[in-house]
Design a protein that fits this description.
- The chain has helices at residues 2-18, 24-31, 34-53, 58-76, 82-95.
- It is mainly alpha-helical.
Length: 99
């Protein structure tokens, strides 16, 4: 799993530095604020740790991450942002993709 993640990061980095004309990865990175990337990463990390340390099914793990993200948006933030919630769940679903 670590090797796949490292290879994916290298491919994204190399594709961003090699191609200067109309780089799709760079456009995606620029279109999302840093906050959304943090939510995506944390959704992935929480789901990954649940996968490693619990006997939850994939659906249960996604539901737990959704619940945690909803609670954080509801009680910890001043303004409820459904976009943050959606991106966190997307990160959780990304963890379930088998490469």
């Amino acid at each position: 799993m670590k090797m796949k993640t490292v290879v994916l990061c290298l491919l994204i980095t190399l594709s961003a530095s090699v191609c200067n004309a109309k780089n799709v990865v760079h456009q995606i990175e620029d279109s999302m604020p840093v906050d959304k990337w943090a939510h995506l990463g944390l959704g992935y990390i929480i789901n990954d740790q649940l996968k490693r340390h619990t006997h939850l099914t994939p659906l249960e793990r996604v539901l737990v991450v959704s619940g945690v993200a909803y609670a954080k948006e509801k009680w910890a933030d001043e303004k409820f942002d459904s976009g943050d919630l959606a991106v966190t769940v997307a990160g959780s679903l990304f963890c379930e993709i088998k490469f």
